[in-house]
Design brief:
The protein is mainly beta and 287 residues long. The protein is built from five helices and 16 strands. Strands 1, 3, 4, 6, 11, 12, 13 and 15 form an eight-stranded antiparallel sheet that branches. It has an eight-stranded antiparallel sheet with strand order 2-5-14-7-8-9-10-16. The longest helix has 14 residues. The N terminus is likely disordered.
Length: 287
């Protein structure tokens, strides 16, 4: 209490305001905080679980009612069991419009007994084509696992069970666009992508196995929340005012860096920065 009294009244008010700006949600609030943006009849809410279904008629998707700029968004997902070839389940954040920003987890289904691939991607100012693909060190269909997007003005970190699998650093000084001005909504979806998702489109969706169900639960969003008409830069752009701006979060800790190195050595199967066939000149951020 004595330590609290050391702060001036304006400082106390500022701290309280910043606490209100950081919103934390859970799946028990699903209907209040999320809405269907595609085939609501294919989404079933059961207690704290959201079951997303794909059949030969349609897939489905949902989106948050609010948008966020910087922070961390996490969800637990249990992916489609069995023969999931041709299907894609996604957890991602995106803004709107042709020059949108987007951060993607896409889970590419496969034949029974074959591993899922996790594809991540980063769009900045409408430009993507920054795919990486990883295998996982567990079966993502037998239990729930946590997938997280951490985002501040220095880097974007993709995490699986709190282990970093990818870091996209801010290299604006080198002329590389970076997502830092557009608030993004949190979304989830499942759809048919058998023209490309599994073995380059050679494996087609086997509709005799439908419906395909992916289950989402335990949403956790700790980020700067924005109403539709609010100014993102004015509300969320103050540096060093939020937990994600701590100096310790400017990069990975030594332990997290070792984890990332382990993942890249054992589970990275595709990196756009190594694809000299696709890119005659590698993207600038790959230097």
């Amino acid at each position: 209490m004595a330590r609290w009294l050391l702060y001036s009244k304006p400082m106390r008010l500022l701290r309280c305001l910043l606490i209100l700006l950081v919103w934390s949600v859970s799946c028990t609030d699903f209907d209040e905080l999320f809405q269907s943006n595609w085939s609501p009849d294919h989404i079933l809410i059961e207690q704290d679980h959201a079951n997303l279904t794909l059949d030969s008629v349609s897939g489905c998707g949902f989106e948050s009612k609010k948008k966020y700029l910087f922070g961390k968004a996490s969800v637990q997902i249990k992916l489609v069991e069995g023969d999931s070839g041709g299907t894609v389940t996604a957890f991602y954040m995106t803004s709107e419009g042709p020059n949108h920003d987007e951060l993607d987890f896409e889970f590419l289904g496969n034949l029974s007994g074959q591993p899922y691939l996790v594809q991540t991607n980063v769009y900045a100012n409408g430009t993507g084509n920054r795919e990486q693909r990883h295998t996982l060190w567990f079966d993502p269909t037998t239990d729930f696992h946590t997938y997280s997007l951490f985002w501040n003005r220095h880097s974007i970190v993709f995490l699986v069970d709190n282990i970093p699998i990818r870091v996209f650093e801010n290299k604006e000084e080198s002329g590389v666009a970076y997502p830092r001005n557009q608030a993004m909504g949190v979304r989830g979806s499942i759809w048919n992508a058998d023209d490309w998702a599994t073995q380059g489109g050679r494996v087609k969706t086997n509709w005799s196995n439908a419906p395909f169900v992916a289950t989402f639960r335990s949403f956790d969003i700790k980020a700067c929340e924005l109403e539709p008409e609010e100014d993102a830069e004015a509300k969320c752009g103050m540096p060093r005012q939020f937990w994600w701006d701590k100096p310790s979060l400017r990069g990975l800790t030594r332990h997290k860096a070792h984890q990332l190195k382990w993942v890249r050595a054992r589970h990275l199967v595709y990196d756009y920065c190594k694809d000299s066939v696709r890119f005659m000149e590698l993207p600038r951020e790959c230097a």
